Structure formats: C-alpha cells, structure tokens
Amino acid sequence: MGIKTSNLGLRRRMRESLSDAFMRSSIANAQDRINPMRADCCAELDRYEQWRELAAGIRAHTLENLDFYLGQFAGNARRAGSVVHFARDGREAAAVARTVFLQKKARRGVKSKSMVTEEIGLNEALEEIGVQILETDLGEYLLQIDGRDKPSHIVIPALHKNRERIREVLAGQTGYTGDSAPESMTRHVRQILRKAFLEADVGVTGCNFAVASSGSVALLTNEGNGRFVSGIPETLITFVGMERVVPELGDLDALCSLLPRSAVGARSTIYMTLTTGPQGAADVDGPGEHHIVLVDNGRSAVLGSRFRDVLRCIRCGACMLVCPAYRHVGGRGYGVLYPGPLGLALVPAMTGYAESGDLAGICSLCGACNDVCPVKIPLYELILEHRRAMAEDARRTGRVERLAFGQYGRILGNPGLYAAATRWARLANAAPRIGPLGAWSRSRELPRIPGERFRDWFARRRKEGRMD
C-alpha cells in the first residue's frame, strides 16, 4: 500500500517542514487566497447547509448499501461495453494495468491526476516493464519531472512550489528559456503534452464519481487534460476507489455543485467528462477499449469499522485549507499521500496504528475541518477517536507515560493523596522546565497555580462568616 511517502520519523518531518520558510509561505498564501473564495461561492448557494445535508445523505446512503451499488455499477458498465476488474489491493490494481499495456504492446501512456494511482504506485509499476507514463495535469507533471516529488495537496499537488521554482524545474528538465509568467510556462508545457496525447497508446484516468445506474465514470478537471487522456488513446484504463460510487446521475448535481466550490472556490469545474463504455458506432471520439479497475486497498476494512464516515470524502481538500497544522507543516510534513485532517482520519484506519499512528498528533483539535467539509464528515471526532484508541493500547504507550497516568489516577481516587498533592502543587511554579516539559513549554506559557486552594479559600470565608 503506497500511502506512505516518507520513512522519516515524526519529529524529523516536523523539523524539516517548520524550517522550510518558503513552503510555509506558499501554503499560507494559498489558504488566505482560496478560503475567502470558497466562503463566497458557498454562500451563493441558496440554503447551503441543506446542500451539505443532501450531499452527506447521498454519500452515507451509498456506503450503507455499497455492495448493492458496486454490483449495479459493474453490471451496467459491462453492459455498456467496459471491462470491469476488481482489485483487492494496490498490487492487484497495478497488475491489471501492466497486463493491459503488455497485451497491447503499448510503450507510451498518458495519465490524468489520480490519487488512487498515486496510492497504488502505478507509475513505478509501469516503468518496471518499460512503459513511459506521463502525467498530464500541470501540477503532477511538474512533480514528476522534478525528481519524483510528491503531492502536497490532493487537489493542488504543487502547492508548495512558486513560479520561480517552477521555471527552474522547466528550465532544467525541458530546456525552457522563457520567463516565470504562468501563461508562458503553461504554453511551453502545452506543446510537450499535445504531442504526448497524440502519440500515447493507452490513457489512464482516475474517477471522481462512478454512477451505478448507468455504469458511467465522471471525471472533473480544470485543464482539459482528462478529456484528452480519455478521448484520444485507443485504450483507456480508469481507476476507481470502490467508495466513489453514487446511485444515480441526478446525485451528481449536488456533489458536483459542492466539489469545485469546496476545492478551489469556483462555482463549477471547467471540464466534466462522463464516459460510458467504449466508443460506439455513433460516437465521434472515445476509446476503442475501456477498462475499469475498482480498487479496495484497505477500504473494506474502513467500511466495516467505526471510521466508516471518512469514506464519504469527495476529495475536495477543503479541510486542509482551513487546518492550522497543515498551514505550518504542509502536505509533505505528514509523510503520507493524504495529508491534513482527511489523512489523520483515513490513513490510520487503512494502514493501522503501527504504520501511521503518529499522524493523529498533528492536529490542534480546533474543529475547523468539520465546519467546511461539504459532506459533513465528523473529522474532528474521528481523529479524537484514533487518539483514544491509541491511548488505550498499552503497546503504544511508554512505561513512563503509563506510570505517570497510573499515579495520577490513584491521586484523584484518594481524597488524602489529592489533598496533599494540591497543597504542594504550587511548588511547580518554580520548577525548571526540563525533560519533556522543556520542549513543550518553549512555545507555550504554562498557567500558574494559585497560591491558595479553593477549598482553603472557601473554609476561610465560612469561618469569617462571609458566605453571603
């Protein structure tokens, strides 16, 4: 499961992220620019909270009946002419693509942005058999040619780069000689990608929503690359996270009204492509062969757990853009493919605490993520539940921590010990901040313990007859 993007420990990741002033500035600027746009666009929707309730209801209903809707989708997709594959994990999913490329004797592929294909390590799997797979989303393309850099946001993957860094990457990797104006750099990349679209043997896309009633897959993009990838190559492979199914085409109305608003503060996406099977006799374009890969890769385990609600996610990334922790550590500081509050709730549920348990600590528990989630996922509560589960697991708490909290519990449960402890607690005001408290208190001001306990104050007032 290729969800982890870094093998560094939490402290090392935090130090590197907090020392990267450029990255932090880029993230902060994006948050400050996009959040007001999102708020304005959402406010334009009449009865916005009812839209959220509707979208949350659609996603919750689908998850409750996912086996039925997955079966319906697969059946209708096959009737439309698509070849449907089920993959239990990333290895099986990547193997399907490898088999298709080998059967077609294909050596060149183009791919639109897809977090699922990042998750299963598709590019690396295809390159092992000699396939040149090119990312065609501008942000993903820049990351690919810049030493296989990883996305820092699920919608805006190159959020941590500014135009000067992008110009340097293009100059070093593609021979670009122009200025750092976005229009100039985009024009240069467009010339490279147009040739790749026309020469590709196979196109690979992700999927925003899979429609059960028609067997269609919906892809939303702002650059048009997804339409070229799905419409020009003879063979198309679409990877679908198994939770991305919706019952009816009508359900796309609510979800596609909220997704672009929540993601980038836009009223609608520029391109929405619906693919239903391969090209028919009356169609002017489309693939001659369409493969759909339904990917589990840990989702079934989440579906059957107390963290099911996180699978409602429509991958808008709004929770990241309001998160104060994400603002300071950026996407790569989390060390996993899905950063921010979404990652904190989803990744430990998919991979287990042994691999991703340290993520839950990267959260201030402010609850802002709950307020902006368009499908009303209780992210705050899910993150807190992860923390609770880990705290109750004796294998994940150190001996000193267990001893300290054990003693704390005994003091609270014994009136005599509690009275003695509170009597001497004021001495902590003069104690040096050493050990774990030293690092903790460098950026925090510890509250001072009053010189007089409430019980002593109350007894004195009563003795003096001043209880009125």
Write a structural description.
51% of the residues lie in helices and 10% in strands. It is of the alpha/beta class and 468 residues long. The protein has 2 domains: 10-301, NagB/RpiA/CoA transferase-like (Rossmann fold), CATH 3.40.50.10420; 400-463, no CATH class. The strands form 2 sheets. A 6-stranded parallel beta sheet has the order 1-10-7-4-2-3, with helices on both faces. The chain has a 4-stranded mixed beta sheet with strand order 8-5-6-9. Strand 5 and strand 6 form a beta hairpin. The protein is elongated and about 95 Å long. The model has no long low-confidence stretch (mean pLDDT 91).
Short overview:
By secondary structure, the chain is an alpha/beta fold. The chain is built from 23 helices and ten strands.
Radius of gyration: 26 Å
Give the biggest sheet: 6 strands, parallel
Low-confidence stretches: none
What CATH first level of the largest domain would be assigned?
Answer: Alpha Beta
Q: Class by helix and strand content? A: alpha/beta
Strand content: 5-15%
Q: How does CATH name the architecture of the largest domain? A: 3-Layer(aba) Sandwich
Oligomer: single chain
